Amino acid sequence: MLLNRVKLDEASSIFEKIRFLVESHEFLFEGKPINITISIGVYHSSQLEVQELKTLS
Questions:
Q1: What's the pTM?
Q2: What span, in angstroms and rounded, lies between the C-alpha atoms of 1 and 57?
Q3: In whole angstroms, what is the distance from residue 38 CA to residue 19 CA?
Q4: pLDDT per residue over 4-56, tens digit each?
Q5: Dihedral of CA 25/41/2/6: which sign?
Q6: CA distance 57 to 30
Q7: What is the distance between the alpha carbons of residues 26 and 33, in angstroms, rounded to a whole number?
């Protein structure tokens, strides 16, 4: 996920909220609850230009 014009602490907060929502959601598999967690890494750069971002897709 790419976030444009977001500070590092804001990005970390956004991804922590996503991580928590996935962890606290009750997922069911074949009618039984299962635990799912995710790990998200954050990279921040103010040097990337729009043209460079297009090559990532």
A1: 0.71
A2: 11
A3: 6
A4: 888 999 999 999 999 999 999 999 999 999 999 999 988 887 766 555 666 66
A5: positive
A6: 35
A7: 6
